[in-house]
């Protein structure tokens, strides 16, 4: 930390400042007395801390606490306008961009469908620009942006790997072009990894340092969190579990060329209608919204209907699909021995607790350890939420560091 020496009063002030700001984020507006109790600081020291943070523009008075005898206590909260971040979720169908203030509240968003003939840089700048405008800001007001993509950018070459289905994102100079077009620092992360970030910071994985998140929508993917940190692998490909060879399906060779593998072919979203048809279960009524959404929408409808009435053929459908999902999960659990497994994505969520319990029971028969299976609780665009949380974490580390002021 610049300008400080371990044990000096200046370092202690910086540490107390950060502790107080983190408490305000966790609890919301607090009084001087409450901050003093939570930090262990005396009332005069807590008052000096708040005055210092208020002068720095990091906290603001938000009102008073009523309901007690005597004068109402002034409440203080993190200044939401001290910094802003952006998150972008890039899919083959388009881009969703959102802007959040320093407290994490989303204040502007925009969805830009994919259009033929437009490049990746143009689509990113348009989506981000519209979200920033709706937030009442300018692009230069954004401190940091994080972009979520399928696959991952190889940290050695900068090339996007494991995402041949994402049009316009494979130029060898793409990252340089995006850096030139955007006026803020930009981070890039795998979409499933960011869903795990959302669950780790806000959802079912809070307080867990070792967990696996299995994502199930257009494709199967996993995020691996070990010792509290994402494990990305040498080329960024850790967690590309759709390529796993698994029993129950013939070996798929040249997997990157066909963009699929044994686990995807055994348990991916596309197998659910066939499983249902084999059991005499008809397709759900109503056309799905567009060809890209059709497999997911159909599988979601079939699994949700089965989970709502889990008997007979419906129960068999859930059992067979649970066995397919558990087959690939068993390999992950045998290697990683995670504390919990988070089931995320619209397809698995549609099966609810019934499907989750069936997968857990199957996994207990197939794997040597028995992690607890939990359903993801961040349901509203978890990838986008994870992108915002990732951007917020880096921005708060910078903005809350009062040694720089």
How does this structure look, described?
The protein has 14 helices and 15 strands. With 405 residues, the protein is α/β, with parallel strands linked by helices. Strand 2 and strand 3 form a beta hairpin. The model has no long low-confidence stretch (mean pLDDT 92). The chain has helices at residues 9-27, 32-39, 43-55, 120-134, 174-181, 191-202, 255-258, 262-267, 272-278, 294-308, 312-336, 346-350, 352-366, 382-399, and strands at residues 30-31, 59-65, 73-78, 84-91, 94-101, 106-113, 142-149, 152-153, 160-161, 186-190, 211-216, 220-226, 229-230, 340-344, 372-375. A five-stranded mixed sheet has the order 6-5-4-7-10, sandwiched between helices.
Task: Describe the secondary-structure layout.
Elements: H1 9-27, E1 30-31, H2 32-39, H3 43-55, E2 59-65, E3 73-78, E4 84-91, E5 94-101, E6 106-113, H4 120-134, E7 142-149, E8 152-153, E9 160-161, H5 174-181, E10 186-190, H6 191-202, E11 211-216, E12 220-226, E13 229-230, H7 255-258, H8 262-267, H9 272-278, H10 294-308, H11 312-336, E14 340-344, H12 346-350, H13 352-366, E15 372-375, H14 382-399
Parallel strand pairs: 4-7, 7-10, 11-14, 14-15
Antiparallel strand pairs: 1-3, 2-3, 4-5, 5-6, 8-9, 11-12, 12-13
Helix pairs in contact: 2-3, 4-5, 6-14, 10-11, 11-13
Percent of residues in helices: 40-55%
Q: How large a portion of the residues is in β-strands, by DSSP E?
A: 15-25%
Average per-residue pLDDT, rounded, comes to 92
Rg over CA atoms? 24 Å
**Which class do the helix and strand fractions yield?**
alpha/beta
Number of strands: 15
Strand arrangement in the largest pleated sheet: 6-5-4-7-10
Termini separation (Å)? Answer: 12 Å
Helices and strands, in order, run as HEHHEEEEEHEEEHEHEEEHHHHHEHHEH
Low-confidence stretches: none
Largest sheet: 5 strands, mixed
Tell me, briefly, the overall form.
globular
- Helix count from the secondary structure assignment: 14
């Amino acid at each position: 930390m610049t300008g400080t020496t371990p044990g000096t009063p200046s370092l202690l002030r910086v540490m107390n400042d950060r502790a107080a700001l983190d408490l305000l984020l966790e609890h919301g507006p607090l009084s001087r007395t409450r901050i003093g109790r939570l930090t262990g600081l005396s009332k005069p020291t807590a008052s000096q801390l708040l005055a210092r943070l208020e002068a720095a523009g990091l906290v603001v008075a938000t009102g008073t606490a009523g309901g007690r005898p005597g004068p109402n206590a002034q409440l203080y909260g993190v200044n939401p306008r001290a910094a802003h971040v952006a998150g972008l979720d890039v899919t083959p169908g388009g881009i969703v961009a959102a802007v959040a203030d320093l407290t994490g509240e989303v204040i502007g968003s925009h969805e830009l469908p994919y259009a033929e003939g437009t490049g990746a840089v143009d689509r990113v700048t348009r989506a981000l620009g519209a979200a920033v405008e709706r937030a009442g800001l300018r692009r230069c007001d954004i401190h940091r942006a994080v972009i979520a993509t399928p696959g991952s950018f190889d940290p050695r070459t900068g090339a996007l790997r494991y995402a041949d289905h994402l049009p316009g994102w494979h130029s060898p100079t793409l990252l340089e072009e995006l850096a030139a077009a955007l006026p803020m620092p930009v981070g890039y992360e795998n979409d499933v990894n960011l869903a795990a970030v959302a669950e780790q910071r806000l959802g079912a994985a809070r307080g867990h340092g070792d967990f696996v998140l299995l994502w199930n929508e257009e494709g199967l993917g996993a995020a691996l969190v070990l010792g509290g940190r994402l494990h990305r692998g040498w080329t960024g490909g850790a967690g590309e579990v759709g390529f796993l060879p698994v029993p129950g399906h013939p070996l798929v060779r040249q997997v990157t060329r066909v963009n699929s593998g044994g686990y995807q072919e055994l348990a991916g979203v596309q197998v659910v209608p066939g499983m249902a048809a084999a059991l005499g279960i008809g397709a759900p009524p109503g056309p799905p919204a567009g060809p890209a959404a059709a497999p997911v929408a159909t599988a979601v409808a079939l699994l949700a209907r089965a989970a709502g009435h889990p008997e007979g053929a419906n129960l068999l459908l859930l059992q067979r699909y649970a066995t397919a999902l558990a087959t690939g999960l068993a390999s992950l659990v045998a290697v990683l021995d995670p504390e919990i497994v988070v089931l995320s994505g619209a397809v698995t969520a549609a099966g609810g607790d019934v499907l989750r319990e069936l997968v857990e029971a199957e996994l207990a028969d197939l794997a040597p350890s028995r992690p607890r299976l939990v359903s993801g609780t961040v349901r509203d665009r978890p990838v986008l939420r994870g992108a915002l949380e990732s951007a917020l974490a880096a921005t708060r580390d910078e903005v809350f560091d009062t040694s720089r002021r």
